[in-house]
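Slide 14.
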Amino acid sequence: MIFSSLPSILMIVAPLLIAAAGGMICERSGVVNIALEGLMGIGAFTAAMVHYFMEAAGFGRWDLAVALAAGSVVATIFTTIHAYASISLNADQTISGTGINLLSSGVTIFFSQIFFRADRTLPFQMGMLPDATGFYPTLWIAVAVIALSWFVLYKTPFGLRLRACGEHPNAAASVGVNIFGMRYAATLASGFLAGLAGGCMVLTESIQFTSNTVNGTGFIALAAVAFGRWKPLGIVGSTFLFGLASALAVLAHDIFPRMAQFLPTEVFNIVPYAITLLALVVFSGRNYAPAADGKPYVTRGS
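Slide 15: predicted structure.
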């Protein structure tokens, strides 16, 4: 039963992996982006809205790609708020990210009321379907994102400079690395990927955007970054673990029909979050985070 459900499980894992890759890139530069949850919401709402209107207008060939791109771009625009506050103003990164999360909740409902006269988008007729392999295209997007992230971080001069900004920004600055520019680039990249993850989620797992579409996935992605020790291969394993737990909560009635008869649905719904907390507690210990993660960079003499 689990094997036959593998496409659905990987469908749930894919957005989580994309968002976690964005969080990893951002934190490797020294900026904590706790706003992944809100940015995924922005991306999901934008993708659902664009896809709905393009589908209604008869643009049936490229509407999904355009919807994903729109969600990514709008989320990137919102990320500039967090980037400016955290990098240029040296604001507390946790508070700034929390502000984005709260702003996302209000903005998406506000524009839903404007465009759809409801607190959600209207349902579209058809979302993203499995391809010829039986898997959803979002899986290949996630694979491409994590492969590209690994290559950029470990095989390019840009990745070396970015990692140096998160470990020893003063040393990096002493050899001419633009710390502010690198951190801006990493933060905006994380926003782009978070928006892409939200779009992938709403176009595969749902037929409309609601306030519960993301439902904590951004926070689980942050936990996956820490559990994966801020490394691409590590977050692949951690996102698969957390994504599998989320999938089991959704597919519990099919995989465990007897248990589902006696246990309320809420028991299965808390499984992903319980496993996330348990994994972080069990495997906590040595701090593998970048040394300058979450610490504002202040130039000498300022």
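Speaker note: The chain has a mean pLDDT of 90.
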